[in-house]
Write a structure and sequence with these properties.
single chain; about 350 residues; mainly alpha; about 80% helix; about 0% strand; globular
């Protein structure tokens, strides 16, 4: 299989390589131009303009940071595709691969945690309030960044491209054996997709049924924004992991017939992964432009306030306090009557 992969690379003609490079240049350039400033604006609105940051908005802010760090590497890849060679050395190739993989793990874990938080907000609101007061989600978010940083290390040993080959390329995966390749692909598919995907599907299967029963229009709209963000992420990642599974099957079967499919499909699906990092701000801006406000920044702030349910949470806490006060007064009255 390893010789099969090498032969697949050698059989590529210059015209097909040029087409792939031009396609990658266009897609990655659009992703960077739209996504980088978009995610910066999202983080600025959340951390500078919002007075109260809910758990949902906190996760969205961290997701924007992870997406921005991924997009930050795009100018280097764009230049590499333009000149058709890697000029930054092997060490920087490994560092860049580590940064990308770490932040991709952060993204999928945050999306999964966001799905769990939405599930708790509907089905276990009192548990969510208790955990929010104890800052449980803030601690989990820190744990996610640390875990992703550790998981990203496993990609470094596989970035050993042949530097004597000209033009030298920062090849993302180069394995010493089929066993090593299987371990990497299975770990990436299970931890980075299958387990989180199952959790997301379970959460939103229950949420979708509940949302159909709710009459609160504003709440349904804010939950729909989160569903679109999660759904976009899943749709952009499914093709990549489908080709990963095809690659795993080809290794098990020991056949080279699927190598061309995996090579072509991997390039297209890999571009979708980067494009996903610029789609979330587009979703927020779309809902912001539909709101009535003279300032676009105020509109965007209103989107995050509705997503976070700041007004709803404040009313709920006020109702809880009023109920507690009334109960306390009633108890005093009962004691007085008994006396």
């Amino acid at each position: 299989m390893l010789s099969c992969n090498l032969s697949a690379e050698l059989d590529q003609n210059p015209s097909s390589t040029l087409i792939k490079n031009v396609g990658a240049l266009i897609l990655l350039s659009l992703a960077f131009i739209i996504g980088a400033p978009g995610n910066i604006l999202v983080m600025w609105c959340i951390y500078k303009k919002l007075k109260n940051i809910s758990v949902t908005v906190l996760l969205i802010g961290n997701l924007a940071l992870a997406d921005f760090l991924i997009l930050l590497s795009l100018p280097i890849w764009i230049y590499t595709f333009a000149v058709n060679k890697w000029i930054f050395g092997l060490v920087f190739c490994k560092i860049l691969a580590y940064v990308i993989y770490s932040n991709l793990y952060v993204s999928v874990f945050l999306i999964t945690l966001l799905s769990i938080e939405r599930f708790l907000a509907v089905f276990r609101p009192f548990h969510l309030q208790r955990w929010t007061r104890r800052r449980v989600f803030q601690k989990i978010t820190i744990f996610i960044w640390i875990t992703a940083a550790l998981l990203g290390i496993h990609s470094i040993p596989f970035y050993n491209p042949n530097q004597s080959k000209q033009p030298f390329q920062c090849i993302l995966h180069e394995y010493n054996s089929d066993t090593q390749k299987l371990i990497f692909l299975v770990l990436e598919s299970c931890v980075g997709f299958l387990i989180p995907f199952c959790i997301i599907i379970i959460c939103y299967a229950y949420l979708w049924r509940k949302l159909r029963e709710m009459n609160l229009a504003n709440r349904r709209k804010s939950d729909k924004i989160i569903i679109i963000v999660v759904g976009t992420y899943v749709m952009c990642w499914i093709p990549y992991h489908i080709f990963t599974i095809v690659d795993i099957i080809s290794v098990f079967l020991g056949t080279c017939s699927l190598a061309g499919i995996v090579d072509t499909g991997g390039n297209i699906s890999g571009a979708l992964v980067f494009i996903n990092s610029c789609l979330n701000p587009i979703c927020y801006f779309y809902y912001a432009f539909r709101m009535k406000s003279p300032s676009k920044i105020i509109r965007l702030n209103m989107v995050f306030e509705k997503i976070g349910g700041t007004d709803t949470e404040q009313k709920a806490s006020e109702n809880t306090e009023n109920t507690t006060d009334r109960t306390h007064i009633d108890n005093i009255a009962i004691v007085a009557l008994n006396v």
